[in-house]
Design a protein that fits this description.
By secondary structure, the chain is of the alpha+beta class. It folds into three domains: 448 residues, no CATH class; 119 residues, no CATH class; 110 residues, Jelly Rolls (Sandwich). Helices cover 46% and strands 14% of the residues. The strands form five sheets. Strands 6-9-10-15-12-13 form a six-stranded antiparallel sheet, with no helix packed on it. A five-stranded mixed sheet has the order 4-3-5-8-7. The protein has a three-stranded antiparallel sheet with strand order 14-11-18, with no helix packed on it. A hairpin with a 2-residue loop joins strand 12 and strand 13. It starts with a helix and ends in a 10-residue tail after the last strand.
Length: 708
Amino acid sequence: MVAVWLGAAFGLAAVTARVVDWFVMTDELYYERLAISVARTGSPLPAIHGELVPTVNQLYPLILSTVYHHGFVPHSLHSAHVLNAFVMTSAALPAFLIARHAFGSRGPAFIVALLSTIVPWLVLSSFLLTEVVAYPAFLWAVYAIQRCVAAPSARSDLLTLVAIGVAVTARTQFAVLLLAAPLAIVLHELTFVRTAPRAVPRSAAGAHRVLTVVLGAGLAVFVVLAALGKASSALGTYSATVSGGNLLPSGTLRSFTEHVATLALALGLLPFLLGTAWLLARVTRRTERRSLHASACVAVITLVLVLLEVTSFDLRFGGGLVRDRYLFYVAPLVLLGFVGALFEVRTPRWSLAAPGAILVAGLAALTFPTFEKLNVDAPAASLNDYLLQSGHGVTGARWTLVVTLLLLLTVFFLGRAIVGRRVIALVLVVATVGALGGETAYAFDRLLRVNGTSGRPITLPQGIVFDWIDRTLGRNADVTIVPYAQIAGDYWATAAYWWDLEFWNVSVTRGAYPGNAFAEIQSTFPKTDLRFDPQTGRANVSPTRYVAQSQRESRFRLRGPTVSLTRDVLLIDAGSQWQADWVTFGLDDDGWTTPGRAARLRVYPAPGQTGPVTRGIQLVWQAAPSSATIHTTSNLGRWSVKAEQQGQQNVSVCVPSHGYAELHFRVDGSAGIYGDIGHKDLVGVARVRGALLARASMADEIGSRCTP
């Protein structure tokens, strides 16, 4: 079995190692930062930007931290993608144990394990996402529940609770297993032990005392938290998924069938139909082996609960899109039933009715959304372009799939009758391996062939371009970034710029957001609320010695020597107490002047200044209309520049040794422009503005004495 795992791992690693850039933001940045925090501090607690964050999904960052202890990010990212391949394909081990416990033999178990390592969702191992470790963790928890149901004992109860706990730290959504375990026990009691319904609670509680006590205590705590209005807080960043709203909203039934059909389609249709039918038959039929019946009960309950959970989430938060990224964990349970049906002596008949009806209804409801590139939330949708093309539209694609399902079912029945059970089983196993392998290869092809969400080929190395902060200061330095409108008028390009700067540099450990502008760039990250005393220019906080600030920044400029100027970003040694050289007032967060609104730039005295001195400032303006005139006034004079597209002013101001001096701006001319990219909710709201302060640079040299 280990050979199957390692073979799949090495094969997968050969592909994932080709991915050398990020693809999913800000998810990958989030888990990378959690891993770096563990590596740098040695603490297993989830922290970002020096603050604890309310997340339960800490298992993957703990594993990921092992490759972020040394070196620069490009090397760590390569190691992470190789590690991902080994971790995700390790799902073969619990899949094998689940199947062996059910079948009591190794042969069919090997087939289940093999099929579990070639499902199309393995493409997710190319990213820094929790799915990598969640896949095996989920199956280990299912295996523990399976054994607990089949052979009740205090030890099995305890192992089940531990396994579920570990699974929840992999993905919070697996809290649903806390419901799956008791429901599977009850179903087993009713259908195998044949306990009278009224006696089931007492019988189940007596056989699973530890599980009953712990779950009972957990329920009591939940009730208390619910009474206090804090029940959802236990889920950390996923608290919104259970707080408020109807957990089974309108359209749940139709969406449920769509989720069923999507899962079935990704597995090749026939494996889902035969697999679920076989599992249902085993639940409803008292078998000679308790372990097999228990396995079927656990699989059916888990499959239904996960389908309902993901359906509810997608309807309430996902716009109705089937996000099979959250659903694929149950695939090995379906494959367990499929292999069981192939080698079962009796051919499934009536048990096909319910899953068949649901599947056909789901196929008839599919909308086949298509995407320009691989959609991480819906890897199974990679085939939709082909299906729509071959079916000449949605209706044709639906009929094609229904007919294909019927043909596959016919092949199964006729094959059993003509060539025998073993031969048709072998043929269908080989066909399924080919189908799953082909689908997985196509998903990777879509990923590697199309530019990623960064707009770059995901196979093109980027570290040498973006990790300049680490190369300048070393990975053990501490740097605060101050996101700003780096690409004027383009929110997403600006966001990607700052994502890159943090993602590729271990030393970026803080993010400052004056006035909460540009905060949506890292919506779930702790943020430093940076403010300046308007009288002195002194900052309220000084979290790190070094600061990465845009050269285009129009709100303020921090004082300190420039260590590096790279790609329009200044790396400033701001010292232990941050101080602004200058601060602006009356401009939009992205630097635009507003007609009728006063705008000014306030200059503070230089360190050690003993009297009033002249300071020179270069201003670069960009006009909103085709032409605008910018008038600048200081205590030393007046300057005007007419900007067609850009205009430059070299101005001066007399700065006293105490207090400040100001430049005042007035713009003749205005026009409609794009929305304020400093706030995501204003990006699409057009505005009327005069001119953009595209750059303000104060000369390092101190001028002569002057009279304010």
